Amino acid sequence: MQADFVIVGAGSAGCAMAYRLSEAGASVIVIEHGGTDVGPLIQMPAALSYPMNMKRYDWGFQSQPEPHLGGRRLACPRGKVIGGSSSINGMVYVRGHAMDFDHWAEQGADGWAYADVLPYYKRMETWHDGGHGGDRTWRGTDGPLHVSRGPRANPLFDAFVEAGRQAGYEATEDYNGQKQEGFGPMEQTVWQGRRWSAANAYLRPALKRANCTLVQGLAQRVVFEGKRACGVEIKRGSGLEVIRATREVVLAASSINSPKLLMLSGVGPAAHLAEHGIVPLADRPGVGQNLQDHLELYLQMASRQPITLYKHWNLLSKAVIGAQWLFTKKGMGASNQFESAAFIRSRAGVPYPDIQYHFLPIAVRYDGKVAAEGHGFQAHVGPMRSKSRGAVTLASPDPVEAPNILFNYMSHPDDWEDFRRCIRLTREIFAQDAFKPYVRHEIQPGAVVQSDAELDAFIAEHAESAYHPCGTCRMGRAEDRQAVVDAQARVIGVEGLRVADSSVFPRITNGNLNAPSIMVGEKVSDHLLGRDPLPRANDLPWTHPDWENAQR
User: Fold this and answer.
1) To 10 degrees, the CA torsion angle through 69, 70, 72, 74?
2) Rounded Cα gap, residues 263 and 190, in angstroms
3) What is the DSSP letter of 462?
4) Active site residue 468
5) How many other CB atoms sit within 10 Å of the CB of residue 150?
6) Residue 237 — very low, low, confident or very high, per pLDDT cuts 50/70/90?
7) Confidence band (pLDDT; 50, 70, 90) for 517?
């Protein structure tokens, strides 16, 4: 088999590229190891805790024992299914802050400043404000990706936003528009009651074209002729075969599997490759390095009133909700239940938000385990720009074996200070009058946990990944030895090979990573086609007028 372009990974960026490349008339083959995304556990938004905990849909990666978190091994779910991680994620839609992308450009990702990427965000979106307001000039109106808002029927959603206002913070009608900073409605990739994954938005329409083909198989390595990528070797059934690319190969296999594939193919730190018997083709020491993620904590409150989602946390209620969704695509099952959010600055002198909140009207973990105290609610909170860095390295030259993943969480002392601020600022928000009718007491960490040492112990034991790994094939300039791809996502040191997924982020963006990952696929599509980038935007984002002196 052969095509103009061979894409490894039917995830967020891969699906977007398949759509845009085939739309332009190029032939495309997408290689995906995972199976179908058909079924209610993926398509029903409220069922989000199930697919990321199922071997059928998830690669099942875990970190190495994290030395600064008491040796805990943290889960690192990545989608092994059509749609990739967009089919198992929480469906939260966050573009990132304008200054995130300006920082990318400063770090050598020329042409990826906010003015450059905003037109791609607009191109990919169809935005539905749900009656909660916002400026449409900042949003897309006819893109493949539907972005919506939940009904916010539970009074706790409004209580969270009002508590933020009472605590002195900004309000924002649209954190994905001009003003990220503040409290307001959260957005989700849900449309007409269904998870609107990259597969539903991009891949299914692309596969209706004769020039786009999906092949199920496990990518083993990139095949080179000299230093030019000419195809991908895959395992399909019991045999090996090569899917050939007449123009280019693109790795969009995740920030875990893309660097792994590069290294298996001879592109990476030469000494590390040699340790595994791999002949180096291009010595790029940055491959697998610069691994970043968001950590978060759940601050949980017991509720005075029985109005939380806990009343639905039983088999009968789940069955009723599931049946309503199955037949009508409406009701509780049609939302991810993350319907209020906030982005705030941790202290004066921070120019743009460095703390994110997801609010949830139940006290529950991502694995579906609820707090023993019954009715409760929680804020997921964590710092946005950790200074800690980790790495993805080969455990073996066997393509079937998972790589070693060490995030090195909390290795920088500033991370501890940032997390303590997160906890103390959140407690202040929950103490506002808006929550007085609802808060009975603090479940977690608990009112007795107050000192720096006590908070640090709680953080070390309870901090969890927000599942936003990125940065392992960093974009930059060719002379930067730690850069893996250039500003057009071309792998430095070889030809005919690109990486386009969250691997290429120079630094992690504010918020959830699905939206910027799709944006990368959109923009790299134009580079692959040799097109001029979309015209730069002139929109000026909002910045707090007294950020140097005021925290709120």
Assistant:
1) 0
2) 36
3) H
4) yes
5) 22
6) confident
7) very high
Percentage of the chain exceeding pLDDT 70: 99
Can you spell out the DSSP letters for 307-334?
-SGGGG-SHHHHHHHHHHHHHHS-SGGG
pLDDT at residue 370 greater than cutoff 80: no
Q: Is 60 exposed, middle or buried (0-12, 13-18, 19+ CB in 10 A)?
A: middle
pLDDT digits (tens, 9 = 90+) for 73-101: 999 999 999 999 999 999 999 999 999 99
pLDDT at residue 135 in the model: 86
For residue 387, the 8-state DSSP code is -
Beta strands in 304-401 (DSSP E): 340-344, 355-360, 376-383, 391-393
Residue 431's region, left for phi above 0, alpha for psi from -120 to 50, else beta, is alpha
- Both tokens of residue 310? 């806990």
Active-site residue, from 97, 103, 468, 527: 468
- Measured CA to CA, the distance from residue 41 to residue 79 in angstroms comes to 14
Helix (H) or strand (E) run with residue 119 in it = helix 114-124
Whole-model pTM: value is 0.97
User: Could you give the C-alpha distances from 272 to 128, 285, 317, 392, 395, in angstroms and in order?
Assistant: 48, 9, 53, 11, 10
Confidence of residue 423 (pLDDT cuts 50, 70, 90): very high
SS3 content of the chain, % helix, strand, coil (to 5): 30, 25, 45
In angstroms, the Cα distances linking 402 to 82, 98, 256, 260, 450 are 20, 35, 9, 9, 40
Over 90: is that where the pLDDT of 344 sits? yes
